[in-house]
UniProtKB/TrEMBL annotation:
<keyword id="KW-0460">Magnesium</keyword>
<dbReference type="InterPro" id="IPR036412">
    <property type="entry name" value="HAD-like_sf"/>
</dbReference>
<dbReference type="InterPro" id="IPR006379">
    <property type="entry name" value="HAD-SF_hydro_IIB"/>
</dbReference>
<dbReference type="InterPro" id="IPR003337">
    <property type="entry name" value="Trehalose_PPase"/>
</dbReference>
<dbReference type="GO" id="GO:0004805">
    <property type="term" value="F:trehalose-phosphatase activity"/>
</dbReference>
<protein>
    <recommendedName>
        <fullName>Trehalose 6-phosphate phosphatase</fullName>
        <ecNumber>3.1.3.12</ecNumber>
    </recommendedName>
</protein>
<comment type="function">
    <text>Removes the phosphate from trehalose 6-phosphate to produce free trehalose.</text>
</comment>
<keyword id="KW-0378">Hydrolase</keyword>
<dbReference type="InterPro" id="IPR023214">
    <property type="entry name" value="HAD_sf"/>
</dbReference>
<dbReference type="Pfam" id="PF02358">
    <property type="entry name" value="Trehalose_PPase"/>
</dbReference>
<keyword id="KW-0479">Metal-binding</keyword>
<comment type="pathway">
    <text>Glycan biosynthesis; trehalose biosynthesis.</text>
</comment>
<comment type="similarity">
    <text>Belongs to the trehalose phosphatase family.</text>
</comment>
<dbReference type="InterPro" id="IPR044651">
    <property type="entry name" value="OTSB-like"/>
</dbReference>
């Protein structure tokens, strides 16, 4: 695969850009369990500076719930699309439009938890989305995917299965990062600015597509295989270094090499 060029540094203070950030694998290195990731003060300060410089045109766009995002980044609160856009908080201190857990998904979650009883598989119940994490038990990934695919046949239409490298998620069809980003770009704080989206995963490709269609800048972190993003950054450290340059931090050795 041809290496993607790095994105040019942007000036966050230029009133030109709206920034959308995926979290896991983009801002935070992956950990064996979703609750094992940590946000350090350096990242918090960077996000606070970026939010100020961008005039508030900064939002998380993540598969996590907004409640989980707030716990991770406390005391920082940003506008956020959680659960791939099934939840929104349109302004930093606004209300969360949260999504509940339908009865059929609750029943399925119980069934799958019993199936994996004693195995090192974490079942994350996120309202209408069910995630099975096998990062700590990679040998169980194929079984987890099979179980969720079989369950799809029993559920009412309107769900899809999104397999990943370390787990699988069952989610409503309308959960998509592209639509989540567009919901923000219609708001006064974001509109008229060029959208920029950093993501690292298959689930971010839908966001890249929307960004490309809307004349924005799509950046895939640690690109592997096909991507719609025209730009790439090697990993989380490179993504943080690039964001720091955009926010006017002095160059570090790693960033300038
Ligand atoms: O859209 P994102 O912000 O990238 O969120 C995607 C999922 O992230 C979390 O799971 C992933 O990260 C965990 C911590 O590194 C890791 O243990 C897990 O294997 C990954 O799938 C989160 O728990 C999910 O709810 C998000 O959908």
């Amino acid at each position: 695969m041809k290496a993607l060029p790095q994105p040019p540094p942007l000036n966050f203070e230029a009133d030109e850009f709206a920034l959308f950030l995926d979290i896991d694998g983009t801002l935070l290195e992956h950990a064996a369990h979703p609750d094992a990731v940590r946000v350090d003060d350096d990242l918090l300060a960077l996000l606070q500076a970026a939010e100020r410089q961008l005039g508030g045109a900064l939002a998380f766009v993540t598969g996590r719930s907004i409640a989980a995002v707030d716990r991770l980044f406390a005391p920082l609160r940003l506008p956020a699309a959680g659960l791939y856009g099934l939840e929104h908080r349109l302004s930093a201190n606004g209300p969360v439009e949260a999504a509940g857990e339908p009865a059929d998904i609750a029943a399925l979650a119980e069934e799958i938890a019993a199936e994996f009883d004693g195995a090192n598989v974490y079942i994350e119940r996120k309202g209408p989305i069910l995630a099975l994490h096998t990062r700590a038990a990679p040998q169980l990934l194929a079984r987890a995917i099979r179980l969720v695919e079989q369950a799809l046949d029993r559920l009412p239409p309107g769900y899809r299965v999104l397999p990943g490298n370390a787990g699988v998620e069952l989610m409503p069809l309308e959960a998509a990062k592209g639509a989540a980003i567009r919901r923000f770009t219609e708001l006064p704080a974001f509109t008229g600015r060029r959208p920029v989206f950093l993501g690292d995963d298959t689930s971010d490709e839908n966001g890249f597509q929307a960004i490309n269609e809307d004349g924005g800048i799509a950046i895939r972190v640690r690109p592997q295989g096909d991507t719609l993003a025209p730009y790439g950054l090697g990993g989380v450290p490179e993504a943080i270094s690039w964001l720091k340059r955009c926010a006017g931090y002095p160059p570090t050795k790693a960033a300038s090499s």
